[in-house]
Amino acid sequence: MEHRAKLLWVGAVGLLAVGYLLGSRGGQEAPAETAEKPALTEESSAPTVWTCSMHPEIRRDRPGNCPKCGMKLIPLVPAGSGGGMSAMANLRQLVVSPEARALLDIRSVPVQRRYVMAQVEMVGKVDYDETRLGYITAWVSGRLDRMFVDYTGVEVKKGDHMVLIYSEELYSAQEELIQALKYAPTRSGQTATGGIDLLESSREKLRLLGLTDEQLREIELRGKPSPHVTIYAPVGGIVIEKLRQEGDRVARGDRIYTVADLSHVWVKLDAYESDLMWLRYGQEVTFSTEAYPGQVFRGRISFIDPVLNDKTRTVKVRVNVANEQGKLKPDMFVRAMVQSTVAAGGKVVDPELAGKWVGPMHPEVIKDEPGLCDVCGMPLVRAETLGYVSVDAGKASKPLVIPVSAALVTGRRAVVYVEVPDAEEPTFEGREVLLGPRAGDYYIVRRGLAEGERVVYKGNFTLDSEIQIQAKPSMMTPEGGGGGGHQHGGAVAKAAGGAPAPKPEIPGTFFAQVERLEDASEAVGQAIGLRDLDQVRAAFDAVGQALEAVDAGLLKGHPAMLWKDLAMVLANDVAEGAEVERLRDAQRVHEMLEEHLDRLRRQLPRPAEPAAA
Ligand SMILES: [Zn+2]
Ligand SMILES: [Zn+2]
Known about the structure:
This protein is an alpha+beta fold. It has 4 domains: 2-107, no CATH class; 118-129 and 261-395, Efflux pump adaptor protein, beta barrel domain (Elongation Factor Tu (Ef-tu), domain 3, Beta Barrel), CATH 2.40.30; 133-260, CATH 2.40.50.100; 508-603, Four Helix Bundle (Hemerythrin (Met), subunit A), CATH 1.20.120. Helix content is 27%, strand content 25%. The protein has 10 helices and 31 strands. Strands 4, 5, 6, 26, 27, 28, 29, 30 and 31 form a 9-stranded antiparallel sheet that branches. It has a 6-stranded antiparallel barrel with strand order 7-16-19-18-17-20. A 4-stranded antiparallel sheet has the order 8-15-13-10, with no helix packed on it. A hairpin with a 2-residue loop joins strand 29 (427-439) and strand 30 (442-447). Helix 7 runs antiparallel to helix 8 (533-548). It is elongated and about 125 Å long. The model is unreliable at 1-46, 79-88, 187-191 and 476-501 (pLDDT under 50). It binds zinc ion (2 copies).
């Protein structure tokens, strides 16, 4: 495909050169010669177009002043080149005069390979870290006489009283201790082994119930059992669950509250499907909350939900955040941002992570050497396995990009205007390209442009409307040459009967090749019907092979130009189709492919079968 495109291109330049030679353009404008243009150009009578640099919609066939602003009109296309289109082998090519180029301020930049920055904005909420939960558990059986925390969401500190339990079990164990104390000898030397055993075993029983030695001493000093015991918070945090009510009976080991440790929190963000390609496990996220205006918090992405919410087209992204000062509280609203440096092939660049070792569950653990995660003990993994690339990874890792303003986007496709290098007059060629995602001020180019080609980023709308005006007639009628005076109004010329249309002969071999292309497209439709994505992609590949098998060399003149344009859009259909990841995208691309094949049948109609008489 590439190879043939180049050949065609050489052909176009050749034609252009021949056109100039035959036109025998002198040093100055030679209006007298425009009348006797060579037959090579189909629109031989096309005049020079004069336009206003301020009002490009103004078009005149002779010099003069702009009816809107009175400025002197300028020639849009150079005098004598026959309207720009005709001398070219490309339907979307346009030659403008150097004056028009300057006055219309048409500017181009080279297509570059460079890292581009994508800024992803997300909103979400602070949440507690589900892996850092503490439980308030009844360590004696009894009745919950008092619960000091009534609601979930209350923040508690380590050591805060949580519940008061009335415990018969505890009461009787204390009574045993006090009884044992009465019979135990008070002086050494008079020890009766049985007595000591009784005292020690009743102390041990209370220890097992969870009393400290200090609490034991208090009971022994008081000499009186108490049925109540207070349970304190073992960790600080937010009470996220209240599992029992006041008055409930609890058994030993029953959970009463769940407390979430807030020294580390999660931030749960919603990321749009279209932004997912920029997001990676381990990336740094900055965010702010309304509660602390102007303060920037940081964390790292610890999880990207593989499941898409079909209604909102978003996925949940979880960020691990250290919160030692406890400023962040669950349910706080946050606005977050990720600055993603984008490399080719959907990888991202992160100088902080490249070459490092990262905790597979805890992205905040980053080390220079392999080892184990400080938090969970899992072996660290290389950042490169997480989709990162080092900054010095070489040229190939840089994506091909064009400025956003260079792309005239229609749906999923875009047209760019490429400045033809080394042309005698400023020459621009419209090209349909496949774009990847937008990253800031750039689009990533997936197909259709090469590094170093110059794309028009200013004035391309003007070029496009000019091409639309000039190219449409020749695109709409099979014979082209809309202004040539022999318009067929789209009617298909019959091979049998009537005068044969004065058009270049298209050999039957070409139509046989096109038929294989049509069959291949039908196979795509069948694969879609089977809902088999692998088969769909393979079928698109097969369309690509059928497309490459079409010999463009069989066509001459206007049909060759039409085919060149069709081959370009069909190749984009194939490239997009061969990478689809969803059935509905496959359907969309297949519909587009069928539309283009329809256009092919209209523009290059197969001659009717001759009667078998
Ligand atoms: Zn004007
Ligand atoms: Zn870990």
